[in-house]
Amino acid sequence: MKQIVILIAVFVIVIIAGTWELSYIKDSSNMFLSDINDIKQIIERDDYEDAQKQAKQLKETWKDIRKSWSVLMDDSHMDRIEEKVISFVYYVHSKEEDKAKHGAESLVNEIKQAVNFQELKAENVF
Questions:
Q1: CATH class label, 2-125
Q2: What does the alpha-carbon distance between residue 43 and residue 92 come to, in Å, rounded to a whole number?
Q3: Which of 40, 45, 42, 49 is nearest to 108 (CA)?
Q4: Taking Cα atoms as reference points, which of 77, 75, 85 lies closest to residue 115?
Q5: Which of 106, 119, 123, 124 is nearest to 33 (CA)?
Q6: Alpha-carbon span 48 to 29, nearest angstrom
Q7: For labelling, which of 3, 16, 30, 58 has a CA lying 20 to 30 Å from the CA of 67?
Q8: Minimal CA–CA distance to 36: which of 126, 100, 117?
Q9: Which residues neighbour 43 within 8 Å (Cβ) at sequence distance 6 or greater?
Q10: Domain residue spans in the chain?
């Protein structure tokens, strides 16, 4: 009987931890996605000076997010997001509007894929 109680307690702790982890990743990704969207809007206004400042801040924000996500997420997802962040920031700084917009969309898609991969689904488990 004692073993069953311990097993159930461990199971509950794992479920709670997994729920917290997914919630944290979703919340931080939504914040990051909002920052990317803000930069896209600034680019559409042709305010590249502000876009460059925001892109630099985005890169710093990514460094902070990466520290916590690296414990929670697969390294391959982290590396792909890192590449997309670097490309996006480069395109913003080089004032290449079309490439910056495409880079933003690519980055958004990569983040969404990484977050979806963290969700507990049969396709992610098997």
A1: mainly alpha
A2: 8
A3: 40
A4: 77
A5: 106
A6: 24
A7: 16
A8: 100
A9: 51, 92, 97, 100, 101
A10: 2-125
Residue found under tokens 């098997």: 126
The b/e string for 78-108 (b: 16+ C-beta within 10 A; e otherwise) is bebbeebbebbbebbeeeeeebbbebbebbb
The model's pLDDT over 60-116, given as tens digits with 9 standing for 90+, comes to: 999 999 999 988 888 899 999 999 999 999 999 999 899 999 999 999 999 999 999
Contacts of 25 (CB under 8 A, 6+ apart): 69, 72, 73, 115, 118
Tokens describing residue 37: 């969207």
Task: Tell the residue number behind the tokens 């997802």, with chain if given.
Answer: 77
Max CA distance (Å), the chain: 68
